[in-house]
Amino acid sequence: MKGFLLLVAFFVGCIVIVVLFSFGAGISARRVASPTEQQVTRATWRFLVPGKIKIKENPVPDSAETLRDATQIWVDRCVVCHGNDGGGTSMGRTMHPPAPDLRKVLTQSLTDGELFYVIEQGIPWTGMPAWGDGTPDAEKDSWTLVRFIRSIPKFTPADLRMIEKFTPRATERVDRDRRPAPLPGGKGDTPLEKLASK
Q1: Fewest CB atoms within 10 Å of the CB: 2, 68, 152, 176?
Q2: Is the entire prediction scored with pTM above 0.70?
Q3: HEC-encoded secondary structure of the chain
Q4: Could you tell me the residue range of the domain that residue 74 belongs to?
Q5: What is the pLDDT of residues 29-39, one digit of tens each?
């Protein structure tokens, strides 16, 4: 009970601090968090990661096969916000808080367990979704991504070209490829195009 009350008090204190620092600034995803707000938020999150998770070691081997598997997971889930090189995309940078640059010390200094926890549980009130679903396969994917994140600062231009092979194509090409094929016999518009024109 005492632990619960301390946790509630901690959250209330964090909310008060955020409100005080934000007073009169309005609410916008474009607002840049102050260094104090960033430090408090990071410290709060690290405090809330369970201790037994923080110290967990990555059970997935550090191998070329792991990185190959991780590349596909990375492209499927992460590239849209973090970019091929982990430095972020325009979408990731316009979130509040922005998607972090995974090449930098702030991310690389997290333990493997903390990175795993971020991937599995997400981070509330940010753009980071929870990818875990409680299955061993999802956990393996998350640990595989931890290996990938650790390798990001060492990427070579050849590594980035390899990742780009898997990266989704430009929007115009995707839209063009998603257009339904004409009806058999070539009779006018497809049903979806007719519906869209109404």
Answers
A1: 2
A2: yes
A3: CHHHHHHHHHHHHHHHHHHHHHCCCCCCCCCCCCHHHHHHHHHHHHHHCCHHHHCCCCCCCCCHHHHHHHHHHHHHHCHHHHCCCCCCCHHHHCCCCCCCCCCCHHHHCCCHHHHHHHHHHCCCCCCCCCCCCCCHHHHHHHHHHHHHHHHHHHCCHHHHHHHHHHCCCCHHHHHHHHCCCCCCCCCCCCHHHHHHHC
A4: 50-170
A5: 777 888 888 88
